[in-house]
Amino acid sequence: MRILCISDVEERWxxxxxxxxxxxxxxxxxxxxxxxxxxxEHVVTLANVPLAYVWGNHDTAYETHPPExxxxxxxxxxxxxxxxxxxxxxxxxxNEQVHGYTEAExxxxxxxxxxxxxxxxxxxxxxxxxxxxxxxxxxxxPHRGFEALGALVERVRPRYLVHGHVHTSYxxxxxxxxxxxxxxxxxxCGSFELEIPDETIERRGGLFRVDAL
Length: 213
Fold this sequence. Notes:
Layout: E1 2-7, H1 20-23, E2 28-31, H2 37-47, E3 51-53, E4 71-72, E5 77-80, E6 83-88, E7 91-92, E8 100-101, H3 103-119, E9 125-128, H4 147-156, E10 160-163, E11 176-178, E12 184-187, E13 190-195, E14 211-212
Parallel strand pairs: 1-2, 2-3, 3-4, 5-14, 6-9, 7-8, 9-10, 10-12
Antiparallel strand pairs: 1-13, 5-6, 11-12
Helix pairs in contact: 3-4
């Protein structure tokens, strides 16, 4: 499975100069937030594959204009061809104008989603806007990661956590790092292509229904 992860920065090759060759073979697009609804609508229309998204801290306009033709996974656990994806958008709430959460609020969100994942067979990819604290975040409050997300990956051990929020232009930002529990953490700022071999995706059964993309 080939997944195009996008976040924060609009890519010219996806908007002004659509690169059909580069998009060939993409099965799913995941937005980690802070991208205009019109941009996501343009991308999903031309790509003609599912686009799943979470809210970034600057996506309050989604309240009146959510991205049409796209699927919100924020606060949900969804399946795509047996790949299980969890969404937790937003950043640290550093003022009242952003889509954000306190650490305690995010801890409660993560606890609820962890219980759901454990009851339904686990999760493969956690999609967030903010990073986990200490893994690709910065020290200033607006770009500080959540301790709760680190606790979440330790609890449910997804293969990947994909986030945005921290722009690669901010300095020496690691695109990919590893959490001690084995989760690969990816900064999707702009775009990042993720390949997951189909034969490594677990086919889950069980009694619990999970919403499907």
